[in-house]
Amino acid sequence: MRMGIGIGEASYAPAANSLIGDLFPAHRRARAMGIFMLGLPLGLLLAFFTIGAMVKAFDSWRAPFFIAAVPGLILAVFMFFIKEPKRGAAESVQVSQEKVDRPIRRILAVPTFLWLVLAGLCFNFATYACNSFLVPMLQRYFLMPLQEAAVATGIIVGVTGLVGLTLGGWVADKIHQRIANGRLLFAAFSLIISTLCTAWALHSGRIEIGVFVAVFSVGWLFAYNFYTCVYTAIQDVVEPRLRATAMALFFAGLYLLGGGLGPVVVGALSDHFAHTAMLSAGAEQMTEAFKAVGLHDAMYLIPVALFFTMVFLVLASRCFVKDAKRMKEGLVAVVEPEGAAATA
Known about the structure:
two-stranded antiparallel ribbon; 13 helices; about 0% strand; mainly alpha
């Protein structure tokens, strides 16, 4: 049953991103993607702000799953009313609807795409590690109660997304209109700020919890620019007929490696650092204090992963213009204004 849930999500993400690419032209795509991706912080916000209360009210950890299923079923019905656009409907060129030979090979031959997959892998490593361990880290290291830790995490990963995705998408589109690879440069700049803020918040130790949440939130706000910039960049370098396949490959790397390894590696490193702290103190029994130090130190992998995300974004920006030009030249025909005959 849980695999079925995963299959549903895995099908939805590439299809939705491909539809957005068909419906919106390149100069408006980042804003559209930002609005679409608001579902992520809104979902996290609702989860971290309400799950504790729901579990307490129903005295069951299963209750939130049943409650969350209701809007999902309703929205699934509305999916049948979405009209299927033509591939590349928003492009300034006519797009062939014929089947493409060796689609995966053609996608993997795009250097920008490969760099963006590596960037996504590192980014998902950081986000899944943060979403998995930020609540217990606040509980152990800052001695916060569960509900307060959940609300603080909701602010960091939820509220920031509402601002970051809305404003970031608008800024990314404006920069893209002036600089061809401006979105990726903007994303790289954002990841520099994100790396510095998250690293400082962790390195400062047991500072005032309000300061930690504020600084970490600034870092996460800028991190959300990854979605509006990178997802649209993939659609700029991959032809419309291959976008769903490209997004499927991209998400495969993100979740199989980035999302799968993030919680595992941070969890294992947390155990290692906790054991090291225990031995350094000359103790023979593991305590919550040692677990707190271990998890806090393991969380340093988050800014490290964000830093490597930035590096891969810079490398992707260097070949983006060439790959985007090649994609446009590979399309079938240019649409002439005022109904004139199309030229090859």
